Amino acid sequence: MIRLAIVIALLLSSLANCFSQFKPRDFFLGIDLLRSLPIYFDQGFTFEPSLVYGIKNGFTLDAAFGISDISKNEIFENIKYNCAGNYIRLGVRKELGNQTNFDVGLAVGYSNYKETGKTTFVGKYFGDYTYEESTNDKIFFIEPSIDYKFQLLPKLFLIPQLRLPIPLNAFEKKSFKSYSAPGIGYLIPSPELFFQRIAVRLLYKIN
Amino acid sequence: MKTVRKLKLLIGISFFVSMPFFSNCLEPCPEPIEPVLGVRFTNVNSPVLYQTATAKETKNVFNNSNGFFSLALSLNQDQLTYFFSNGIRTDTLTLSYKRDFKFESERCGFVLNILDLKITNPTSFKRVKIENDNGIFSTSYFINVTIDD
Questions:
Q1: A2 φ, ψ to 5°?
Q2: In a designed cystine with B98, which of A78, A140, B90, B115 is the match (CB 3.0 to 4.6 A)?
Q3: Which positions in chain B touch A129 (Cβ < 8 Å)?
Q4: Measured CA distances, A66 to A47, A180, B111 (Å)
């Protein structure tokens, strides 16, 4: 696994010497690869297709839509957790210069989701009981980000990205503490929080 | 050198002051299982000694230690009738209560609290008292039954 990671890193670093500029009217179809992998959850999926459109002077429009249904076997000591919903993100990106493949971006987003927590209390004498709480929530957020473009093929780009979503509204008051939201990730401090902010996108130029 | 010594002293004091916060001072979280309360029998002028305790809704027998019984409360019902027997005599005790499931904290998750525990009918005992047990049992209650007949 380590050797594979080193090979991939060496390959990507060689590609990094190619400057990849998006031109006006370039149109890309994309997908977030990392979100689809069960790294931050135990079961489920997140599917995030996106569209990128070149404007001019290094600016691009970036739109993404996501559907997510993830589960974690245990949070908060004894709760089996599920979060299902969808999100949309619209933003603008800017290349940081002609001699670099770094981009910075700013997006606004909206996430609409339902969280469910379940705990089964064990009843040796009178039978088990499963207690469940569900809440619906909506979050508006802004998301600054920075990424680096690797050109794999003439029309194919691999873009690792660091995103920092910032919720703008307070969550609905409820007993069950909000744990995560589609498009944003964890809402509470967690050792995995930093890694959740990393995305790896694959973009394909379609014109 | 003086600064280094002061720093070491400050670190040492901070360590001892903060120790209570990192030691096992936090109350343990209740386990997600059936809550338990104790029943103690006080026999006044009576030779009655129960050997078994059961309930209508279960085939299992509750634990008994020298006449002190640990009764489980149902997670699914708000009222239970228990039967105490010594082979010759059988007495009944009926309890009603409220089950309060809720999110306690990030540390404990969902917990069950038992509220409004009461003695109701049918109960054959004449002198029954509910008392607080200072956290010995998960329900924080135990029942004191005085038998003098």
A1: -65, -40
A2: B115
A3: 75-76
A4: 6, 14, 34
The C-alpha atoms of residue A101 and residue A29 are separated, in whole angstroms, by 19
The architecture that CATH gives domain A2-205 is Beta Barrel (2.40)
Which residue has 């744990």 as its token pair? Answer: A179
* CA-based nearest residue in chain A for residue B56: A126
**pTM reported for the whole predicted model:** 0.77
Q: Are A81 and A128 in contact (CB under 8 A)?
A: no
Domain limits, chain A: 2-205
Task: Count how many residues are written for chain B.
Answer: 149
The answer to whether A179 and A82 are in contact (CB under 8 A) is no
Model ipTM? 0.78
CB contact under 8 A, B103 and A124: no
Longest Cα pair distance anywhere in chain B, in angstroms? 83
Q: Is the pLDDT of residue A204 over 90?
A: yes
DSSP code for B140: S
